[in-house]
């Protein structure tokens, strides 16, 4: 991977759009996301040169404390918007190279990976395991609205628990509406509700 690829126009524009879309608070320099684009247009030549020469130095992160739900404070480091932009450009360039080497069960900070989906799949697997016997599985699937012949087919499947948990039949019967009815809230939605605390 050459730095020229990281600094390609397409990659930089995508990084800029992502930083602007994510918004967020300012770093130690006080620059807001809305000020990033005009600043980059004026100073891009110097920043690009320092990146190509390896002399670019990120600024310190701004330390803030946010309240925890159970009391106490959680420390958070907020980079400057310029550093977030450069980090995003690097991330976009390196992800296609390194992402294939990660486990398919690794969800942290990975594009197109969603912890909510992983939790729901894990819960589907647990329920499938709890149903244990084929007879119970067939009965439960029928109760959840599956046609009897399909319930019989899946209830007698010899596929692994983890594999079945990704099946269309469990996606449909133990999908998002099922988990909502059980009181399971989306972590992503919860984050959306609390995100203002970071700004």
TrEMBL record:
InterPro entries the UniProt entry points to: DNA/RNA_pol_sf, GrpII_Intron_Splice-Mob/Def
Domain of life the protein comes from: Bacteria
Protein's name in the database: Reverse transcriptase domain-containing protein
């Amino acid at each position: 991977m050459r730095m020229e690829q990281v600094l390609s126009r397409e990659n930089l524009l995508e990084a800029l759009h992502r930083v602007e879309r994510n918004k967020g608070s300012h770093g130690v320099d006080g620059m807001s996301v809305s000020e990033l684009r005009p600043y980059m247009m004026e100073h891009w030549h110097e920043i690009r040169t320092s990146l190509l020469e390896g002399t670019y130095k990120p600024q310190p992160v701004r330390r803030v404390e946010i309240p925890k739900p159970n009391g106490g404070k959680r420390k958070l480091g907020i980079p400057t918007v310029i550093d977030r932009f450069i980090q995003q450009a690097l991330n976009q360039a390196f992800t296609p190279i390194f992402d294939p080497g990660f486990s398919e069960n690794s969800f942290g900070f990975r594009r197109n990976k969603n912890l909510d989906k992983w939790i729901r799949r894990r819960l589907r697997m647990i329920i499938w395991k709890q149903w244990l016997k084929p007879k119970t599985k067939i009965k439960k699937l029928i109760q959840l609205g599956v046609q009897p012949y399909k319930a019989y087919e899946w209830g007698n499947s010899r596929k692994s628990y983890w594999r079945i948990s990704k099946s269309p039949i469990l996606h449909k019967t133990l999908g998002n509406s099922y988990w909502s009815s059980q009181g399971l809230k989306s972590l992503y939605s919860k984050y959306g509700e609390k995100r203002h605390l970071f700004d």
